């Protein structure tokens, strides 16, 4: 003889609970993958900001240093030109770093 009404109900409940458990596992896996993707994107963004900031600083420093050295050398003496160039490169570096960071945040 077949199962009774209570047995069939328990079997259906067990099947439903197994289905809910599978759905919960799938959702957990999806959430974990989404969190990993967000963390990787944030790490890539931070890496790009660092690269752009360093590149801007380098370009600003060398541009400021070259311009000031040329002007000071023309005014008189290579040693004086080198000193002025080193001091003038620092503001250029700061401006370049800020510009690089800004561009990396915008794009």
Structure overview:
- The structure is a single chain.
- 94% of the residues lie in helices and 0% in strands.
- The chain has one domain (5-106).
- The protein has helices spanning 5-76, 78-106.
- It is an all-alpha fold.
- It contains two helices and no strands.
Proportion of residues in β-strands? under 5%
Helix content: over 70%
Give the tally of β-strands: 0
Mean pLDDT: 76
Specify the overall morphology.
rod-shaped
Low-confidence stretches: 78-82
Distance between the termini: 72 Å
Class derived from helix and strand content: mainly alpha
Helical segment count: 2
Q: Which H/E pattern describes the elements? A: HH
**Rg, alpha carbons:** 32 Å
Number of structural domains: 1
Assembly status: single chain
User: How many strands, which pairing sense, and closed or not: the largest β-sheet?
Assistant: none
What's this model, at a glance?
By secondary structure, the chain is mostly helical.
Which SSEs are present, and which pair or pack?
Layout: H1 5-76, H2 78-106
Features:
single chain, 107 residues, mainly alpha, 2 helices, rod-shaped
């Amino acid at each position: 003889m077949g199962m009774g009404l209570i047995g069939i109900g328990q079997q259906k409940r067990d099947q439903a609970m197994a289905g809910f458990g599978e759905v919960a596992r799938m959702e957990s896996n999806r959430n974990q993958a989404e969190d990993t993707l967000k963390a990787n994107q944030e790490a890539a963004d931070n890496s790009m900001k660092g690269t752009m900031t360093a590149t801007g600083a380098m370009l600003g420093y060398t541009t400021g240093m070259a311009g000031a050295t040329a002007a000071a050398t023309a005014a008189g003496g290579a040693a004086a030109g080198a000193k002025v160039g080193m001091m003038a490169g620092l503001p250029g570096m700061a401006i370049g770093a800020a510009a690089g960071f800004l561009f990396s945040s915008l794009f």
